Amino acid sequence: MPRAIEMNTPQILVINPGSTSTKLTVFQGERCLAQECVSHRREELAPYPRIADQYPFRRQVIERWLREKGFEPSDFAAIAARGGLTKPIAGGVYAVQPAMIADLESAKWGEHPCNLGAPLAAEIARQAGCPAYVVDPPIVDELWDVARLTGHPDIRRTSIFHALSQKAAARRAARELKTRYEAANFVVVHMGGGISIGAHRRGQVVDVNNALHGEGPFSPERTGSLPAGDLARLCFSGKYTLDGVMQLVTRAGGMYAHLGTADCREVEKRIAQGDRQAEQIYEAMAYQIAKEIGAMAAVLSGKVKAVVLTGGMASSRQLVARIRKYAGFVARFKVYPKMEEMGALAAGALAALRGTVGVKEYR
Predict the structure, then answer these.
(1) Which stretch of DSSP H or E encloses residue 133?
(2) Number of continuous H segments (helices) and E segments (strands) in the chain
(3) What does the pLDDT look like over 203-231, one tens digit per residue?
(4) Superfamily of the domain at 145-331
(5) Which CATH number is 3-139+341-360's, of 3.40.50.80, 3.30.420.40, 2.40.50.100, 3.40.50.300?
(6) pLDDT digits (tens, 9 = 90+) for 258-309
(7) pTM for the structure as a whole
(8) Is the CB of residue 98 less than 8 Å from the CB of residue 88?
């Protein structure tokens, strides 16, 4: 019998690669032993043309952090990672398998830093001799059929969002409001390098903006929705290749394109110093987030238990206040800036080790 199942409180390493950071947490059972959000400057990531090329850099970050905190791979009973852009699959706990890693490394279904999670977890797990899992990956697909349609049959809307973070935050809000996630409706907003806003109807995310490939509000790094005609002209202007356009949409748009920084703290500092352009761009981002909250409230016919804000930018009182100014009428606001998804990843891995949930296979 594996050591992890024999232990009442196994140690679990959680890895969450984001656009500008690598979040790391060690849990013993449900108790957090150590955690850190290791930030990465844009200059550090610039030498890597593709997300997959960052693998050696991120692996060194993790190994250095473990040494600094006094952990060895052999200390862990499981490694849990934020899932990447795989094919559309149901929610749940998945074992990291070669087929999954191959899809993530090739970016067959899309490119994002979270694609590094499973390969990094697999390597640490190999050293530790323990299983590696992903939980509720970004391609969790629970959309209503009507939500998939667009104005042309060649293009369908797809479900790519911060599923793990959104579901964990919604469950926390449900507990605090003395109800069950499966019995209530929520509009949930994850605000990080990308922004996703989902309509959660009784435990299912029935509509959500594609937070990676250009829907919804612009974010610190992403353009969000763009006027289709203007985007088409840009694509055929000769100024960009397809890869160039995709990088513009996913990594070089939003606040960064306007202000040269994706750091909200820097933008708020500029606002405090009287920078009117920074003020206008920050207000526009909050305005667009609020518009999408209103749209998702309409999906739920206005029956919303709470609007839930989570992700790193939810720690900004200024940004939250700007969003509430426009969308505060929808429902009460619940704000969780902490790293909800780290605990959710650990909980999924712990349930898998204890056998209380079935581990799914990626085929």
Answers:
(1) strand 132-135
(2) 14, 12
(3) 999 999 999 888 999 999 999 999 999 99
(4) ATPase, nucleotide binding domain (3.30.420.40)
(5) 3.30.420.40
(6) 999 999 999 999 999 999 999 999 999 999 999 999 999 999 999 999 999 9
(7) 0.80
(8) no
